[in-house]
Design brief:
Layout (H helix, E strand, L loop, with lengths): L1 H16 L9 H9 L1 H9 L1 H4 L5 H4 L17 H5 L3 H8 L6 H6 L9 H4 L6 H5 L6 H6 L18 H4 L16 H6 L2 H8 L11 H5 L21 H10 L4 H9 L13 H13 L12 H7 L6 H16 L4 H34 L24 H22 L3 H36 L1
Helix pairs in contact: 2-3, 16-17, 16-18, 18-21, 21-22, 21-23, 22-23
This protein binds heme C (8 copies).
Length: 445
């Protein structure tokens, strides 16, 4: 109640600050009815237009003629913050705000066309502009700094639109994160659609589970890549089964947070498999010690430690308990964690086979690369076995576990687990061939 009142007061304050421009028809609107009638119509149909807010509230008042429009400013969330501080602060605390720096941190980004990774917005940058740019890039990009228009598209800026799962579907779809397709092929999405796409019906929407009480802070326990920090306890338990690595593991354990993860945890084989995956993406070196990439990963909050993971997991389960029983849901989460564990085991086998090719000199590290194999080079990888590692990492493993959490059996199994296993067989077979060919070549020298 108090929060609602405070929100109303802030908005009123904001309105007063813009009083001078709150005419029914300002100069901006008058001229733009002719220049861009669609924009004016859409804006006036939304709540802000109806409340008498003017174009100048977001674009400033410097541009006034037919030719000086380069003086019009483009908004950022700080523009909205004057009137909507709560949503902006919540948004800044969540993962959406980190979308830009996370994608820019990928080593393959620097060798793609600007249209794909820059202000052409025809690929990675088109989706990742939901994140905040560092100041130097923001100053350089005229468009695409608004962030909030990812779900409340201009110029209607509608709450109803943002409450529909469709508002997430242009980004959360496709190759490596088909949440929209998984949701729509799971009972939750099917019921939502059959019941007329209402925001608060019998079945939950994306927003119900991920933006509870309308919070703009989105973040999940496992995250996009189902990576998390191994804990001190995880690593020490591994020493018992891999004593030959004791020195390296003790040194690694010292650098890690202490604790246990809720649901599935503390299986030494799993810890080892996951350490190999971290090597495959260059976050741990060959001696299992953190590289400088760990800093980047922590800065972009790609991985979580036990404290944050457990808090988020418990909160997410509480969301499910509103419609399901506790034991039913607890079983669901453990089963989904089991999928990650099984997928990690298969994946680690394949990474190992490729690591061995490098170790034995059958493959050579490409010039300029710091790590090899380096799965984060995605489709810029030099050999077919490494291309396949990248497919497992971003496509098959992702679908296997994301589908399990979103209850899409087809995605989880036929688009995830099945091709994952198939691809591991292909990698092992190909690695064997490469090894044989190499032996043939070296013995004939
Ligand atoms: C006399 C007519 C006129 C007035 C008054 C006017 N504009 Fe414009 N505005 C234009 C024209 C023309 C363009 C360019 C549109 C085009 O070429 O499609 C433009 C473009 C814009 C753009 C887009 C700029 C870009 O780089 O894409 C914004 C934003 C804008 N106006 C906002 C405003 C605001 C805010 C006001 C009031 C402070 C305003 N306009 C007043 C005529 C006007
Ligand atoms: C000058 C103050 C002001 C600024 C700046 C402002 N808003 Fe608003 N906003 C309002 C007012 C007033 C309302 C209407 C509140 C109501 O009627 O409940 C509103 C409502 C909204 C709503 C709810 C619409 C609905 O359908 O219920 C959204 C979403 C929104 N604004 C987004 C934004 C975004 C995004 C920005 C920045 C790009 C922004 N606002 C900038 C004052 C502002
Ligand atoms: C269709 C929109 C879209 C495109 C294109 C896209 N991404 Fe993403 N990206 C997303 C979404 C949505 C997520 C979050 C998915 C999830 O959490 O399951 C994401 C997540 C990521 C993450 C993980 C961030 C984290 O903290 O876990 C990285 C890194 C990333 N993308 C990099 C890239 C790169 C590099 C490209 C281009 C080569 C790219 N993305 C292309 C939408 C896109
Ligand atoms: C609540 C904030 C807000 C208000 C008020 C607002 N705009 Fe915008 N406008 C935006 C955002 C956000 C963008 C997208 C900027 C970007 O891509 O960086 C935008 C972009 C534009 C563009 C260029 C992009 C395009 O789609 O052509 C024009 C033209 C424009 N606005 C005109 C107007 C006019 C005319 C009004 C008043 C009727 C208005 N705006 C009111 C937020 C606002
Ligand atoms: C990921 C999608 C998404 C993004 C991005 C987003 N919003 Fe929202 N917004 C929503 C949803 C969903 C709601 C409805 C929440 C509810 O009532 O349950 C909402 C509601 C709102 C409301 C109306 C609050 C009310 O109850 O009247 C405002 C204002 C608002 N958002 C502002 C913003 C601002 C400012 C930004 C940028 C910092 C932003 N939003 C970015 C999804 C989004
Ligand atoms: C019934 C609740 C629920 C609904 C509905 C739902 N999700 Fe999820 N979502 C989850 C759970 C549970 C996880 C995994 C949580 C964890 O890591 O423990 C998750 C994870 C995610 C992730 C992280 C990567 C992943 O897929 O595991 C993203 C991104 C995401 N959901 C987006 C969406 C989008 C977009 C929609 C709608 C199209 C949606 N979700 C619908 C519960 C839901
Ligand atoms: C413009 C594209 C875009 C839209 C629209 C969008 N997202 Fe995202 N979302 C992303 C990107 C990119 C990321 C990854 C950010 C990062 O982690 O660096 C992401 C991350 C997330 C995450 C965090 C996953 C994690 O790693 O924990 C959740 C949850 C999520 N989005 C839910 C939603 C929901 C729900 C909606 C719709 C209401 C939505 N998103 C709309 C692009 C989008
Ligand atoms: C708003 C209510 C609601 C919430 C919240 C909710 N569910 Fe459901 N769920 C339903 C309904 C309704 C069904 C359909 C019942 C059926 O399958 O007979 C369902 C079905 C399911 C099913 C069975 C699907 C199948 O294909 O057999 C699972 C598993 C499930 N939900 C898990 C979850 C999980 C996990 C969460 C939290 C992340 C969750 N649900 C949150 C309403 C909800």
């Amino acid at each position: 109640m108090l929060r609602k009142l405070l929100t109303t007061l802030t908005i009123l304050g904001g309105l007063l600050a813009f009083q001078g421009s709150a005419h029914a028809e300002s100069a901006c609107i008058g001229c733009h009815k002719k220049v861009t009638p669609g924009i004016v119509e859409q804006f006036l149909s939304g709540k802000m237009g109806k409340a008498g807010i003017d174009c100048s509230a977001c674009h400033g008042s410097d541009h006034t003629t037919m030719t000086d429009y380069s003086k019009a400013k483009m908004p950022t969330p700080d523009t909205c913050k004057k009137c909507h501080p709560v949503q902006v602060e919540q948004f800044r605390a969540g993962k959406h705000d980190l979308g830009w720096i996370a994608f820019k941190a990928m080593p393959m980004v620097s060798h793609q066309p600007k249209a794909i990774v820059g202000d052409g917005y025809k690929g990675c940058s088109g989706c990742h502009k939901i994140g905040k740019k560092p100041p130097e890039e923001m100053a350089h990009y005229r468009y695409g700094n608004a962030q909030c228009d990812a779900c409340h598209t201009r110029h209607a800026f509608s709450k109803a639109e943002a409450l529909s799962p469709r508002a997430c579907s242009n980004c959360h779809m496709g190759f490596d994160h088909p949440q929209w397709e998984m949701y729509m092929s799971a009972k939750h999405g099917i019921i939502w659609a059959i019941d007329g796409e209402k925001p608060n019906g019998r079945a939950p929407t994306c927003q119900y589970c991920h933006m509870p009480e309308g919070t703009h802070t989105v973040v999940t326990p496992w995250g996009f890549l189902a990576l998390r920090l191994p804990t001190k306890e995880n690593v020490l338990a591994l020493i018992k089964v891999a004593p030959q690595l004791e020195k390296e593991l003790r040194s690694l354990a010292e650098k890690l947070p202490s604790g246990h993860y809720v649901d599935l945890d503390d299986d030494p084989q799993w810890t080892l498999d996951r350490a190999i995956i971290l090597q495959g993406i260059g976050v741990l070196d060959e001696k299992f010690q953190p590289t400088e990439r760990l800093e980047v990963v922590l800065k972009a909050r790609v991985v979580r430690g036990p404290e944050e993971f457990n808090k988020l997991r418990i909160a997410m389960k509480k969301r499910c308990y509103t419609c399901h029983s506790k034991p039913y849901i607890d079983k669901q989460f453990r089963a989904a964690d089991e999928i990650i564990k099984a997928a990690d085991h298969e994946f680690a086998k394949a990474i190992r086979a490729v690591q061995d090719l490098y170790r034995d000199g059958i493959l050579q590290k490409p010039p300029g690369w710091k790590y090899a194999p380096d799965i984060l080079q995605f489709y810029d990888n030099p050999t077919s076995v490494e291309q396949k590692l990248y497919l497992i990492f971003l496509e098959y493993r992702q679908r296997a576990f994301q589908g399990a959490f979103h209850i899409s059996n087809d995605y989880s199994h036929w688009y995830g687990w099945a091709p994952l296993k198939e691809t591991v067989v292909e990698i092992l077979e190909k690695a064997k061939e490469m090894r044989e060919l190499h032996q043939l070549k070296t013995s004939s020298k």
